[in-house]
Write the structure tokens for this entry.
Amino acid sequence: MRKKVCIFLVFLMVFSTLLASCATKKKTTEKKETKKEKETKEATGTPYLIGVILSLTGDYSSLGVPEKNVIEMEVDKFNKEGGVNGHPVEVTIEDDGTDATKAVTAATKLIEQDKVMAIVGTSGTGQTMAIRGEIEKAQIPNVSLAGGNAISEPVNKWVFQVPWPNGVVVPKTLDYLKKKKITKIGLLYDSGGFGVDGQKVLEQKVGEYDIEIVASESYGKDDTDMTVQLTKIKGEGAEAVVVWGAGKAPSIIAKNMDQLGMDIPYIGSHGIARKEFVDGAGDSAEGVVFAAGKIIVPDAYGKGTEAFELADEYIQDYTDQYGEEPNGTFPAHAYDGIHIVFDALKRLDKLPDKVDPKELRDAIEKTKGLILTGGSFTYSATDHFGTKPTDLVMIEVKDGKFEEIE
Amino acid sequence: MQLSQIIQFVISGLTAGSVYGFTALGFTIIFNATGIINFAQGEFVMLGGLISVYFYQSLKFPLFPACLAAIVVVMIIGGLFERLAIYPRRNSSVITLIIITIGGSIFIKGSTMRILGEDPMALPAFSGGKSIAFLGAAIQPQAIWVAFVTLAAVILLRIFYQHTILGKAMKASADNREAAKIVGINVSRLTLYSFAFSAAIGAIGGVVVTPMIMAVFDMGGMIGLKGFAAAILGGLGNPIGSVLGGLLLGVLESLSVGIISSGYKDAISLLVLLSVLFIRPSGLFGLARGERT
């Protein structure tokens, strides 16, 4: 009898935890159903199939889930407005679990089973690099939502980048440091893909701005204390600490710096452009400066400009549909990514039932001055970054909020 | 390398080391009572941290009640874990039970991610104020709290094991389960207590260190592993050894980051674990033990 009760209790426990997590799942399945209904009302042509790979679980899930929300929201809207000449766009979203191997599996499935004409994603640099082989084999375009420099340098004809890569953010940041007459910096970078990528670009470019890296230390993204590395940097006479990473470690670094009584400036990467950075660092976040897109300080677009209206509408739509404002820059990348595809589809000469992915790729590469949240996107055969340092602004944390500074 | 830098490294190491020490204490308590290694120990530390933040931020409890409530909740979770996962299989081999704890840790981690989310969360420091200068290095006030709580835990545990019936009974049942039953010790009840107890200890460690390092759903894995290495280093089964092992491990880690390179940080704990197992398996302060069946 006891044994049966125990087994029953275990099942109850497992079941109730599944229920607790199902609460979020239900919402998205409902949306899928209403989306299909709307598609048959408005756009009625053969749907164009786009694959999407995002990190819905795993380390990057806090990026992936909002990205999914945005894509679904925008695809709905696009189809309601008639799609591309009557053809609706249908997205199939796969989860890569923030894992490169799973990303490749997802890509293979989308290409071979769903026969998509393009893939938007992934949320992370490692995963984007991993699916490159499949993309090239299938010869379909990939619009990546990840920020690693290696994604578009050197240029791969099939892969286009949406977030400002380190190759664009670093020059903006170094420019700011030069204006502040800082010549010696200590670098503290995440030993994962994003951090190492940033470190490489920084090492490459510092010379152009008459800046010297006097100390260079790495940390693991799950590390909980960086006082040792900071102590070493302090000892080398750095005039500012440049931190390149994302996740929780940058917040801890801010606290560590206060702890050690280091009052030199903390210059971060665009990886900290989320409110979790401020929440985690608390008072230590005050005065932290980093370069990022205008989407987190929308006034920077300039009130009344096309960019401002677009960003405002995106933020408003998201808030109306999901009950909270989109957090940080990452969901906005998803907005930009899917709109780049929409825009390219609209510019195709012919719109047959089955679009040739090669033509779609060519159309994407011809994107010129497309105003989206990340800036004005222009691609070319030699530039798959899309954005420029002028699309970024320097942001400082003041009173726990992000403010644009000059 | 200046002296003040080395002192800073040592201080950082001692702070990190206390988390390992608390985790190691948890391993030791369960090992002492049951002879099994509970690989879900790291998750108890994580739960202590995350649940206290939940009480403080979402339910708006004041700070100390939030922490105490979290410790109690984790203690109950530890007890439930024992009853539902360990007790039904109590007559299985040690290896089977160890694997069950590994499965349990994966379940706890996954459910926590679903229920409390994946974002890291922090508690405010227990007392405010700037860092205290010490021989050219800086000590956070929170680190003093950590040291204080660790010391209190060690003293209380020693008293418990040496001077209370329950403590002695726990040691007896680990030594020889059958003999303990013969003298009237309720061994299965003891197992329950030891899990609840060690969950509470882990949670205390998690709570007191969250203001410094932030809690996140997947922090349990590394902490569990390093806590285990610390327990082995100090001698599995010896509470004081566990804490000392933790502190020593923390300092070794810190010094290697400071003097060699930051890349090897996590490797150090594993290196230590392997070295101890090869050279002196009973650890620094453990008693050389005979075969365990």
